[in-house]
Structure formats: C-alpha cells, structure tokens
Amino acid sequence: MHRIIPPKISQKIMTGVFWASGLLTIAILLVIIGYVLLKGLPVVNLEFILGDPIDSGRSGGIFPFIMSSIYVTLLAVLVATPLGVGAAIYLSEYAGEGKLVKLIRFGSETLASIPSIVFGLFGLAFFVIYLGFGWSVLSGGLTLALMALPTILSASEVSIESINKSYAEGSLALGATKWQTIYRVVIPAALPGISTGVILGMGRAIAEAAAVLYTVGAALMIPTSLMDAARPLPLHLYILATEGLSMDNAWGTAAVLVLMILIITVVTNTLVDRYRKKMMGR
Amino acid sequence: MPKWDEEFFIEKGLLLTAVSSIIIIALIILFVFKEGIPAIESTGFFSFLFGMDWAPTKGEYGIFPMIIGTLGITVLSLLMAVPLGVFCAIFLAEIAPSAMRKVLNPTIQTLAGIPSVVYGFFGLVLLVPFMRLQFGGTGFSMFTASVILTVMILPIIVSVSEDAFRSIPLEYKEASLALGATHWQTIKNVIFPAAIPGVITSVILGMGRAIGETLAIIMVAGNVVQIPSSIFDPVRALTSNIAIEMGYATGIHYNALFATGIVLIFMIIVLLVIANYLHYKKKVTMGGGYL
Amino acid sequence: MEYRIEVEDLNVYFDELHILKDINLKIPKNAVTSLIGPSGCGKSTFIRTLNRMNDMISTFKMDGTVLLDGEDIYNPKVDVVELRKKVGMVFQKPNPFPKSIFDNVAYGLRVHGINDKDFLAQKVEESLKEAALWDEVKNILDKSAMGLSGGQQQRLCIARTIAVEPEVILMDEPCSALDPISTTKIEDLIHKLKKDFTIIIVTHNMQQATRVSKHTAFFLHGEIVESGLTEKIFIEPEDKRTEDYITGRFG
Asked: Please, are residues C112 and C164 in contact by the beta-carbon 8 Å criterion?
C-alpha cells in the first residue's frame, strides 16, 4: 500500500488542473479575437466597407478587396461543390471498398493537408503560366477550389452515409431507379449536411492568403472579369501589415475577416442544429 | 432512351468527379516536381537537402537551415499546444458543465476558422514588441513564431481530441467508476489510453498545420536563413522561403523554390501515412482484436 | 432475517419525470434478490441508485433513504468511491476495458492502491477461479479481453467486480446479451457467489428469477407492486397485476 498521493487528493488537484487548462485555452483565444475586434471595429463603418482605397490602401475603404474575396470564393465553391458532392455520392452510394476507393480517399486526405503555399506554387505553375490565365480571379478562384474540394467532399460523404439506408430501400422497392432514389430521396435528406460542407469550404477559401499570393495578383480595383487581377481581404491584410502601410486599416480589415468567419460559424451551427433536430424527428 | 443507359452515364459521371481528387493530386505532384527537379539536379540531392547556405545570387541552394527552422518551430509549438490542448479537450469532454460546453464548442470552431494572417498580424503588432522587451533582440524569433502557431493549432488539437474522448464508450467509464475508481483515475487509466489513437491524430493534424503555415510565420519569425543557436534567434521556415522569394525568382532560383515545395509535400505525405497506420491500428484494437 | 440494504420511501426523478415512486424494499444478506418487471418500469434506475451511478446524470434528483448496513449512502459525508468499492456492479452489456485479461481483473485493486505483483497475481487467479473463467484464460492472461466471447467477457466482468471484495453485487440484466449456454454458466456462478455476497439481479427472464433467486420484487410503472419470497410471488401472487405479468398477459 505504498502510494504518494491518495486518490481523493489527486482527484481534487487534477480537477483544478483541468479547469485551469480549459479556461486558459479559452482565455488566450478570446483575448486575441477580442483585441482584434476592439482595435478594428472603430475603423469599420459604411465608408470603410463601401469606399475605395486611397494611396495603396493607406487610407480609404476596402470595397474592392471585399468584392475580390467574394468573387474568388464564389468561383471556388461553384467549381468545388459539384466535384465534391459528386465524389461523395459516388463513394457512399456506388463504390464498394476496393483499391480505387482507398486511393480516392488518400487523394482527398492528401489534398486536405497539403500546405496552402504549395497550392499557390501549383496555381502559379499550372493556371497562371501553363494554362495562361495570368494573375486573375480565375487562377486564384480555381486554386482555392482545389483547397475547398476535400472539405466539401468529406462533409458531404459523412452526411450521405448517415442517411438511413431504409429510406433508399423503400424507394428502390417502389421501382425507382438508383439515380432517382439518390436524386429524390438521399440528396434532399443529406442537404443540410452538404450545405454545411459547402459553407465550411467557403470558410477555408475566404480565409486563405498564401494560396492566392502568386495566383491572383494584388490589384487595387474591383475586378470586372474573370481575367482581372484582384486582391482578396487576407492578402490585403498581409500586404498592409508587412509593408507597414497602415495599422488602422489593417486592424479594420482583420476585424472584417473575423466577423465574416463568425457569421459563417453561426450559420453552419444553425444548419447543423436544425439538421440534428430534423433527424431526431422533432 | 432505356433507363439503364441513363443510369450508366450517371454512374460514370460520378466516378469522374470521384477521381478528380486523384487527378488533382497527380497534377500538383507533376507540376511541382517538373519545376522543382531541375534545381535538385543542378545542386545535387544531398547539397540541396543538407546544404547550409542559401544564396541565390551565388547560385547556392541549401535548404537545411530552413528544414531545421520548420522542424524547430513545429516541435516548440507542439510542446506548448499538445499538453494544453489535450487537457482542455478532457475538460470539455469530461468535466465542463453542459451549458458551458454549448458556448465553448462554437467558440473553438470559430477560432479554428480565423484566417492565419489575422493571427500573424496580432503577433507582429503585439507579441513581437513584447518579446523584444522580455528577451531582447529584435523580438522576431523561432519562439515568437511558435507561440503564434501554438494559438493557431490549439483549436484543432482541442476539437479533434475532444471527439476522441467523447467517442470512448460510456460503458468503460461506468465500469471503472463502479469499481470504486475516482473520476481522475478513470480518465487516466481507461479513457485516456482508449483515446490515444485519436489524440495522436489530433497531434498529427496540428503538426500538419504547423508545417504548412506560411504567412503568419513570415510575419513574426524574422526569416533569417540560419540554424538558430537559441530559440530566441530568428529563423526561416520552408514555407516562408517560398512565399518570400517567389515574387522575384527566376531560372534555377525559381526551380529551387518548387523543390522546397517538394520537400513540404514529402513531409505531409509521411505524416498522412503515419496517421492512416494509427487509424488502422485503432480499428484493430477497438474492434475485438488483440492489443 | 438480516438485511444488508434497506430502502425507505425512495423517489427518483429525471428532470420532471417521476421514475421511482415511494419505493420500500429490504434486501436480505447473502442471498439473491431478483427485480422483475416490464421494460421501462424503473428496475435499472433502482439498482443504479444503490451504488450512486445515477450521480453521473445531471438531471437526477431523489429523496428518501437508502441504508447500506444501517448507514445512509446519500449522506453528504459518504465517500462515493468507498461506497462503490462495497457495492460492485455488473452491467447489461459485457464491458471489459480494452486492456489485457489480467489488467482488467487487477484494475480495481490497482486503483485502490495495491501494486504488489505477487499479491495481484494471486488475487487475479482467485477471482478468475471464483468466476469459473480461470481454466479458459489461464494461458492468455496477457491477451486483450476484447478477444473473448460475450459470455467469457461477462464472467471476466464478474471476476473484475469480485476482485475488489464488495459486499453487494448489482447485476443489471447480466445475461440479456448472452446465448443460453453462457447464461447457464452465469446462473451457476450466481448460485456459487451467493454464499459470500449479497446479490441483486435485474432480469427480464422470469424463469431466471425462479432459478437463481430466493426473493423477488415486481416493479411496474416505477412502483413495487409486490415483493417477497420468489416461490410465493410465482405460485400465489397477492396482486392481480403480478399474476397477469408472470402468466405472460403483458410485458
């Protein structure tokens, strides 16, 4: 019966340690976000959001950069969604457990973990130079599409897999074909999960700077075509901060980015909640 | 058109979307290797990987200091983020009251989505001057970069290992408590050991993010190509090297930056293989096999 | 008769749900008591009240007293850990830890501070012998318990429970996930264990109740309709509802 600390004491100590580390983690993270919002929000007003940049972004607004972000993100999601959802349907409804499926999964996992700067390198070599798209919304958006693809794929796959197989069997038993069943029964049921995946992919695209650093250019004007150069918000923040152009505008841009992510999180959580409630039949 | 025909085309179409991931990966590897190989050929494999000097103007391309930079920043940040993150995950899964959990989970999710440049900017404006005051030097250092990275990978480690702790069957916990173990003994002896594969996965994901992070590190690490003699020395990471110099690189220099990308891809694939192996092992141990 | 557990006016609630209503029951020492009744009648909640496993559920509320050897187990001064050492539990689904067979049986001893190797080895052997599992596992003690069959796993869980030498063993439908042969083995084991332990067993299976227990309590909608000697309950029940249940008219 040799023991250094009796169980009751160690229980008390460790409970304290757990509370401390939980609260510390949350505190660190919240302090950063709080600080960014505190410094940035006073800069954010209608003029800042809808105005044009003056003097390379030293003062003035960030409207062209917001539009750049929206364009490249939309393009990314428009390209990645059909690919990701299609792949998810194939993996969960058609494919068995063969070598090909394993390879596809490994491909998707690798895609999810490749550093964003490597996507940037690829975008530069392939879209910008090889395909001749130049520094443009098109090159940047396509590069971001590749990054959003695995997010959309895995969220959709999980969502489709979770649909009760008996629904599909019910439909098949009524004489519907496999595709009719998927299209009319499986996809509608999985839609909230798929939307969550799309929004998460959007979040990944909207926050990315390194992948667009050498694919989208750094224009100060609102892009008017796919072939125009642009400057998404994270890239703008990076340029403002590293070239020391304007701290106020940098804080403002950071605050706008944080708010965007906040909105995305709230929307996904609402969707997931509603989805859960629906699945539980309430 | 007969039904099976339509079905046939749909299935093949879906197959095509499914293999797009493989095609994309193949293209990425093809292009990055195509552009990178010439630099490795002209420098020599060993002098590229283990060369101590990176001087594009003199035609010297050794990336060893940057490999050390990347590994140093990664290891330091894991040393800080893993204990804190895992304890926080246990707190959320086992101890926190459920009302608190409902607030904290979306918060951590939001923090995981915050753009890395925002964290980098915060580090540049606040952490760098703080480090300068505390530890002297410029404030730009391997340690500063690790602190910012710690904050960035905490949300991943917390959320993935929380899932791991939560997925441990309640039966294990009940059995342990029913034998008269305290909650801490139950966590230490039953819940934690059963969750280890998931915890390691979270560490690997955090590691992947740390190795791949680019702009936030550029903003605070100082970016000097050197093997640091202390953690307060400035260093340059592999990713930073690409982002900093790609703007003006031409010729072999341009190729050498792609070759740096090859090294990064290789590191990530090694991590993925380890993660997959652990996942497989987890299946074996949990699914009725032998330990 | 000597009683080990005395329950007086026990009421249990989960949030607003009134799960157990005015339960009064005395559990005799060193004998087997069966709790029978249709599912959802509160039997499982009742035995989980006896080792305070319901404390894990945040919405749990109770009033009344539960006495173990005359001491109120819900007294704030009572150490739950000590209580659970005295009142062991075997669950519905066999739940060995994903550890070796040896480590499963030694677990309870180790958490109570016993680290002496020889003593542990001796105690593990004794417990496995008592649980009638020793001969089947003596050569694979270092193998994972997850590789055993369901019936072996359940006997391992019993061995794990008796290793810490409890006074009372609670069994929550211990055979419901097992095949008939494994069930027979567990029932034989219960007969053997009742010399040393007070056993309370929840069961769906009325034949099992008649086979293993001396006393029986019939639960319905959170109340005890009737309790007493098993023979009497099954041969001449006093309450019409008991008669309906045991003759299979509902449940």
From this structure: yes
Number of domains in chain B: 1
Cα gap A278→C165, rounded to integer Å: 48
Cβ separation B180–C85 shorter than 8 A:
yes
Q: Which domains are assigned to chain C?
A: 3-246 (3.40.50.300)
What SS3 string covers A62-81?
CHHHHHHHHHHHHHHHHHHH
Q: How many domains does chain A have?
A: 1
Of B177, B285, B289, the CB nearest to C84: B177
In a domain, residue B172? The reply is yes
Chain A interface includes B108 (CB < 8 A): yes
The verdict on ipTM greater than 0.95 is no
Report the CATH number at residue B191: 1.10.3720.10
Closest residue in chain B to residue A250, using alpha carbons only: B121
> How much is the pTM?
0.86
* Host domain of residue B128: 50-286
- Report the CATH number at residue A99: 1.10.3720.10
Work out the number of other CB atoms within 10 angstroms of the CB of residue B190.
Answer: 23
Using CA coordinates, name the residue in chain C closest to B182: C81
Nearest to residue A133, comparing CAs of A209, A213, A215, A208? Answer: A215
The C-alpha atoms of residue C68 and residue C8 are separated, in whole angstroms, by 12
Q: Has residue C10 got a pLDDT over 60?
A: yes
Best to test chain A binding among B32, B114, B186, B207 (most A CBs inside 10 Å):
B114
A52 secondary structure, DSSP code: P
- Residues, chain A: 282
Q: Read off the pLDDT of residues A241-280 as tens digits, 9 standing for 90 and up.
A: 988 878 889 999 999 999 999 888 888 888 877 777 766 6
